[in-house]
């Protein structure tokens, strides 16, 4: 499989966005629960903050699929990067807030908007692959690999930055690096294929298929199984490691 120079640039841009876009929401997992606990936030609220990121994506994805017929895909893609990067920085700056209620409100708003931006860049990335590459399934599979790399790198990178700089700098660093991809995207992504004809009523017909319902249920169950430990695992591991350290060094 040989790609032209333009295709290489497009896929490189989309892959970088996929890695950073997957790493940003996972980078806070190692340290956010205990930092939120210091402000009096319960673990249930922490789980709500995590969940709203995905919930915002759930509701915005159908809207974005309709918007692409009126707004260029490149504009939506870049706007998604900007929204996610800015909200990541604002999420980190929210640590300066002393009020518990205001802190929770800022976290909910910024994390939800970050999910909307991530959904925008993800959907437009699929459109760019569809209009740029002939072997769509292969390229989508490779793109999923980069998303997995981002999920893999996010927690250790966030934890390392937190250990070195504490709460705020990890969000500032990662959010700023993500925003750097905006000019790169403006230069490398094509302007063609931005208006796609979408057949009306497609969702209803799509969801009526039994195979789609089975796969959707499988994805939901597997996602719950993988994500329910996010609010509770970091405090548990921190407590366990502290006990081990105390027992080894009395």
UniProtKB/TrEMBL annotation:
Keyword DNA damage: no
SUPFAM superfamilies xref list: MFS general substrate transporter
Major facilitator superfamily (MFS) profile domain residues: 7-250
InterPro entries: MFS, MFS_dom, MFS_trans_sf, MFS_Vesicular_Transporter, Tet-R_TetA/multi-R_MdtG-like
Membrane topology of the entry: Multi-pass membrane protein
Transmembrane segment boundaries: 45-64, 76-97, 103-129, 136-158, 170-190, 211-229
Location within or outside the cell: Membrane
Gene Ontology MF: a single term: transmembrane transporter activity
Keywords, comma-separated and alphabetical: Membrane, Neurotransmitter transport, Transmembrane, Transmembrane helix, Transport
Protein family per UniProt: Belongs to the major facilitator superfamily. Vesicular transporter family.
Name by which UniProt lists this protein: Major facilitator superfamily (MFS) profile domain-containing protein
């Amino acid at each position: 499989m040989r790609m032209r120079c333009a295709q290489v640039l497009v896929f490189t841009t989309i892959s970088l966005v996929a890695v950073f876009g997957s790493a940003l929401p996972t980078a806070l997992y190692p340290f956010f629960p205990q930092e939120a606990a210091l402000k009096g936030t319960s673990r249930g609220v922490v789980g709500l903050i995590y969940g709203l990121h995905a919930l915002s994506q759930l509701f915005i994805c159908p809207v974005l699929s309709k918007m692409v017929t009126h707004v260029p895909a490149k504009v939506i893609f870049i706007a998604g990067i900007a929204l996610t990067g800015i909200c990541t920085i604002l999420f980190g700056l929210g640590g300066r807030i002393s009020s518990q209620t205001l802190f929770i409100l800022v976290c909910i708003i910024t994390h939800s908007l970050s999910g909307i931006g991530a959904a925008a860049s993800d959907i437009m990335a699929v459109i760019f692959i569809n209009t740029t590459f002939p072997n769509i399934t292969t390229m989508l599979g490779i793109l999923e690999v980069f998303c997995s790399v981002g999920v893999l790198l996010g927690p250790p990178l966030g934890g390392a930055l937190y250990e070195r700089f504490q709460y705020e700098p990890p969000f500032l660093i990662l959010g700023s690096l993500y925003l750097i991809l905006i000019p790169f995207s403006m230069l490398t992504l094509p302007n063609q294929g931005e208006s796609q004809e979408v057949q009306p009523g497609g969702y209803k017909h799509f969801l009526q298929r039994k195979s789609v319902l089975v796969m959707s249920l499988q994805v939901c169950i597997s996602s719950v199984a993988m994500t329910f430990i996010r609010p509770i695992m970091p405090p548990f591991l921190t407590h366990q490691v502290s006990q081990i350290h105390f027992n080894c060094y009395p």
